[in-house]
Amino acid sequence: MTVWDDLQGQSAVVAQLRQAAMGDGLTHAWLFTGPPGSGRSNAAKAFAAALNCDQDDVTMRGCGTCPACLTILGETHADVSFVRTEKVTITIEEARELVATAGNRPSSARWRIIVVEDADRMAERTTNVLLKAIEEPTPRTIWMLCAPSPADVLVTIRSRCRAVALRLPPAAEVAALLVKRDGVDPALAERAARAAQSHVGIARRLARDAEARERRLETVRFPLGLRGITAAVMMADKLVKIATEEATSSNEERDAAEKAALLATLGAPETGTLPPAMRSQVKQLEDDQKRRAKRSVTDSLDRTLTDLLSFYRDVLIIQLGNAVELVNVELRSELEEFARRSGPDVTLARMDAINNARKRITTTNVAPLLAVESMAASLIQ
To answer: What is the pLDDT of residue 252?
Structure first.
């Protein structure tokens, strides 16, 4: 086992990073890009492990078994920082902390490495805080930024980074990974990988959670009964509820545990009113949790709309002659019947409506239900 094993379908990227880890083409700043599910943050983590691997033989760097590799993969290494946000954006204060951390020499490893997994979630003024640190890094510091595409990062930043472009792996390779790594039944792994459209994380969740598979199928089947404005409003309400329930269920327990841990750390009394200083810290935690909850719902709804989009993607494939495999193979007969009712131009317009709703939900302050209702109305048959 090596640190590269989970990077399915990324042989060109692995070759590039292996070479750099051996000292050929290594630079101080990297930009990992690729669509959701391509594994860009996993690639950055594997590269960080290879750079600080304990092996003396450079050809063996990234062994996956030495203490350095194991602690980096476990995100507990003192000289490797992983930055991700569960809020809407990375704040300017967090960016300043990164710059301060990047200025420190590594305590035990070859390199101090800063991995920013959500570089696309920084406002322009926040990104500018990082600019000088990336332009003029300390000698033993390496920056690794991750974003869906180069356009999601300021040109002044991306021009100073070496690009690493990942792609979605073939579904067969994702299925093979699920079988090998998670022990999933091969047939179930194949269905999950196809339904997830090669997104490794979502494929793993679908393979392990029967309720998640049922929710997805319910979402994909919505267009089959979408006749009239009443059905559109009901569909929108259900889609938002599915996303909200999924996000809420994963946040409630975590929020309670975080609050209990904070109170224990502060030495808060078991009963009575908290002192003002403690109240302010608890309020800060609760505000952060509310921002995280908002992003969780947004991300969950975006995944739900992506599942809905796969229905129309399959319809378009059928209308254009079945040139590639369907995502929702189990619905082929229903998809074929649906495809006969319109042409490719109508299907493309419906796909545009879904993508516009996704963009509005993830980039503006529009109420999710209003955005989805507007989208649903444009999908009426």
So the answer is: 63
